[in-house]
Q: What sequence folds into this?
């Protein structure tokens, strides 16, 4: 291994009363991928913002190639060969790839006209050197999010050759796109670029990184080789063992709540990228949690939203039964009458009204019940809000706070509380712990199990296999709109992965 | 660089928002319409011409003038508040006022329809026109801006056709072609000749609008639809129905304003009400309602309406040229909106 290209030592940062970084050390060698893991609030973004020149540290030192540096702004950092790709990509959608790569640094011909031919040639070379094969004349808006990410990398590489910081780059990518991104990352490593890879997806670490550093509460709590077992990394992340996160499985199964038999959803109009459920057979009983596994695009989200009447317009064919009776689930109103509730995978976009208070949000689904004669009963509203806050341990426990001011985990609890106030029989969950830190995940698992023990049925989709394996009673695997297999909870992750992808996984 | 000190802000956000509540700017914005109104009223007293030792601004006649002048745009602004809270806009209201004033005058005179039937027909027509705009916007997925811009043109065109582009005068009396004299009451003043009847209509509707927005399920639906349409839909709120309803409300309000207009001036005129939509929107925005939807206040709208009326009055009393009045109104709108955006950004950065 070569000498470190970057050494950060004893980095301290306070924001008012919050001690965000408490003397963090971090180093990066040439040609390695160093993963930085941590929950929300652990300090990883602050640390990387110090590195990017966005924030000045209170104490501590940053050395690049052995020389101490002080970045006053992001441009300084870039001049030292350090580039950061933030989650919000800095690309202009209406311009083509070439124009984006040269934005602000356009090549001119004598007389001030753009030298398009030369820029295009160089753009092609840059994309190639980043290992990306996309026509540079395509506009950003025509590209998938994964392709945009690759363009952003190519752009960053054009001014950074030493260190590249990637902040949750796979957050919005499909499995195939993520795989392609990993290949590009590995190719850059071969070329000697040092890469800081920030993520909260544990399963990515061994696939892309060489080393991993874990932050918790502003401290570095451990540094491990990337091959370290996941359970060990989780223990570092949350400070307690992985298995304890999952509650014991429930006891008895109750009546059949949902039964799909060769059910198929016929959308009124075909929409590209919306994988309609084509042939799904599964059951959910009261008292159990049934998981939906599958790669991105397998149709899990579409199945859930079509059951709730919230997807494309269309109708179900085949057998769809709720509580033993044939049900017509084509509108949200019908689904709710049948006792279904739905927690979306996008709580900020479609789950909550961020500027409204916690109380206003939770009662949104039961306004009809708490407003006899059309006038909202403040007493009933307050009571419902307080009960939700208590049941879900929403923090801070105040109904009047705008929900947007809560942490991701507490926001997700508000979404759960809102859906459960209507006392559904069957809860449909889409990625219920996305963007929630590990501690809050554990709390959500406990509550879900407590609810099913009291007679709720849950059907949940998740792309985190350990979550499905640890929490669910049964796991249904979907591929291309079809349910293809079913496994009991606790199944070996490798078996599940093989089934979901349809290929025997190469040794990771 | 909004996500700069992200970790820290998450931490801060977990604390009780005492800090946010203490943010003086947030307080100013929360009560901006009231504060603005008080400032304008103080300014009115200070800058008022004085005659025979009496402050003209505070004279009963002048006060009656102010509250009479705001009654029509005020009524429209009440309806507009609902639409804007759903993140919509209704540009057709001014033209609708013209159309409905024509309709009122014609029904009462040449059609001899009588008072109650006329009012019912006009209010129903306005409500229907508004609801249709809402339906069209939903069915064809058009922006309310476009649909109501078209509605503005059509209402104006319809009014011109109906009236033949002449004033439809209302004469009172008992007989064919004469309107029931009781309708003339809308132009009168009550209570020692101080309180215009038109203002009483505004006050009554303002009370109803405030109650509906703040205490009913429908009011909550309006806020929810504007706050996050998708979340509202997934929570079982009938989003399309709410949207149609708010446009029906502006239609109703425009019709009511058209009736008041006809009653105050004793004629119907196809060209009246031009620009009222902008005055109403200004009152709503000054009142603290967000054009992005999801937040707003009916009390704010009422205060904003009075404030604009009082401001215009002061400037008139001091013989300030009408063009300068426009400049002053413009400046106040920018100030109100900028304050809101500043606070919104602070809140936004906390997420």
A:
């Amino acid at each position: 291994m070569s000498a470190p290209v970057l050494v950060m030592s004893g980095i301290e940062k306070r924001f008012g009363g919050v001690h965000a970084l408490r003397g963090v050390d971090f180093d990066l060698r040439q040609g390695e991928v160093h993963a930085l893991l941590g929950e929300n609030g652990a300090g990883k973004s602050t640390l990387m913002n110090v590195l990017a020149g966005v924030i000045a540290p209170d104490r501590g030192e940053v050395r690049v190639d052995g020389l101490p540096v002080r970045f006053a702004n992001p441009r300084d950092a870039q001049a030292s060969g350090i580039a950061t790709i933030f989650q919000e990509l800095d690309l202009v959608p209406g311009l083509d790839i070439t124009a984006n790569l040269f934005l602000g640094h356009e090549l001119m011909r004598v007389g001030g006209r753009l030298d398009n031919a030369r820029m295009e040639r160089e753009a092609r070379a840059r994309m190639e050197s980043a290992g990306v094969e996309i026509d540079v004349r395509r506009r950003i808006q025509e590209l998938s999010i994964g392709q945009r990410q690759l363009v952003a990398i190519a752009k960053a590489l054009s001014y950074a050759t030493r260190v590249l910081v990637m902040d949750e780059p796979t957050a919005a990518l499909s499995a195939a796109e993520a795989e392609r991104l990993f290949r590009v990352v590995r190719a850059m490593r071969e070329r000697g670029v040092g890469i800081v890879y920030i993520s909260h997806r544990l399963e990515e670490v061994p696939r892309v990184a060489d080393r991993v550093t874990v932050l918790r509460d502003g401290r570095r709590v451990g540094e491990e080789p990337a091959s370290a077992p996941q359970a060990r990394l989780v223990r570092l992340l949350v400070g307690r063992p992985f298995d304890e996160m999952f509650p014991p499985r429930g006891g008895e199964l109750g009546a059949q709540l949902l039964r799909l038999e060769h059910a198929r959803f016929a959308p009124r109009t075909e929409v590209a990228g919306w994988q309609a459920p084509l042939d799904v057979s599964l059951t959910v009983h009261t008292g159990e949690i049934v998981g939906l596994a599958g790669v991105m695009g397998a149709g899990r989200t579409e199945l859930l939203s079509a059951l709730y009447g919230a997807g494309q317009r269309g109708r179900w064919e085949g057998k769809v039964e709720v509580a033993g009776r044939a049900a017509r689930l084509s509108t949200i109103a019908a689904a709710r009458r049948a006792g279904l509730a739905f927690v979306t995978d996008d709580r900020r976009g479609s789950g909550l009204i961020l500027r409204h208070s916690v109380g206003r949000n939770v009662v949104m689904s039961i306004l009809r019940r708490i407003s006899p004669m059309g006038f909202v009963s403040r007493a009933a509203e307050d009571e419902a809000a307080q009960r939700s806050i208590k049941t879900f341990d929403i923090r801070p426990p105040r109904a009047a706070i705008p929900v947007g001011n809560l942490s991701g985990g507490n926001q997700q609890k508000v979404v759960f509380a809102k859906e459960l106030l209507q006392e559904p029989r069957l809860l449909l969950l889409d990625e219920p712990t996305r963007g929630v830190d590990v501690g809050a995940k554990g709390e959500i698992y406990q509550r879900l199990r407590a609810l099913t023990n009291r007679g709720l049925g849950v059907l949940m989709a998740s792309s985190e296999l350990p979550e499905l394996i640890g929490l669910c009673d049964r796991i249904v695997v979907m591929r291309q709109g079809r349910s293809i297999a079913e496994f009991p909870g606790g199944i070996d992750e490798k078996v599940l992965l093989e089934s979901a992808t349809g290929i025997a996984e190469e040794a990771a | 660089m909004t996500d700069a000190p992200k970790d820290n802000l998450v931490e801060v956000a977990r604390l009780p928002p005492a800090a946010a509540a203490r943010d003086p700017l947030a307080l100013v914005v929360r009560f901006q319409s009231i504060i603005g109104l008080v400032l304008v009223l103080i300014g009115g007293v200070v800058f008022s011409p004085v005659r025979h030792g009496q402050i003209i601004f505070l004279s009963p006649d002048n006060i009656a003038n102010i509250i009479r002048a705001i009654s029509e745009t005020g009524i429209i602004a009440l309806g507009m508040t609902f639409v804007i809270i759903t993140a919509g806009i209704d540009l057709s209201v001014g033209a609708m006022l013209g159309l409905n004033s024509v309709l009122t005058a014609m029904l009462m005179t040449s059609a001899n329809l009588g008072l109650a039937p006329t009012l019912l027909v006009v209010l129903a027509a306005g409500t229907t026109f508004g609801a249709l705009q809402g339906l069209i916007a939903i069915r064809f997925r058009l922006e309310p801006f476009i649909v109501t811009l078209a509605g503005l043109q059509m209402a104006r065109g319809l009014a011109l056709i109906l009236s033949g582009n002449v004033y439809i005068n209302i004469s009172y009396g008992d007989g064919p072609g004469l309107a029931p004299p009781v309708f003339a009451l809308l132009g009168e003043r009550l209570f020692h000749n101080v309180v215009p009847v038109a203002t009483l209509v505004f006050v009554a509707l303002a009370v109803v609008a405030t109650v509906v927005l703040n205490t009913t399920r429908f009011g909550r639906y309006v806020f929810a639809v504007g706050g996050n349409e998708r979340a509202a839909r997934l929570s079982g709120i009938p989003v399309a129905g709410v949207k149609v309803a708010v446009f029906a409300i502006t239609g109703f309000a425009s019709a009511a304003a058209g009736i008041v207009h006809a009653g105050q001036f004793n004629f119907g005129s196809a060209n009246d009400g031009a620009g009222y939509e902008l005055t109403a929107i200004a009152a709503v925005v000054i009142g603290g309602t967000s054009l992005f939807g999801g937040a707003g206040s009916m009390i704010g709208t009422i205060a904003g309406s009075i404030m604009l009326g009082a401001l215009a009055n002061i400037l008139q009393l001091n013989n300030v040229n009408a063009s300068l009045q426009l400049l002053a109104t413009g400046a106040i709108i920018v100030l109100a909106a900028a304050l809101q955006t500043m606070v919104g950004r602070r809140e936004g950065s906390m997420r």
Chain B has one domain: 53-349. The longest strand of chain B covers residues 50-51. Chain B touches chain A at residues 1, 3-17, 20, 215-221, 223-224, 227-228, 230-238, 294-295, 347, 350-351 (CB under 8 Å).
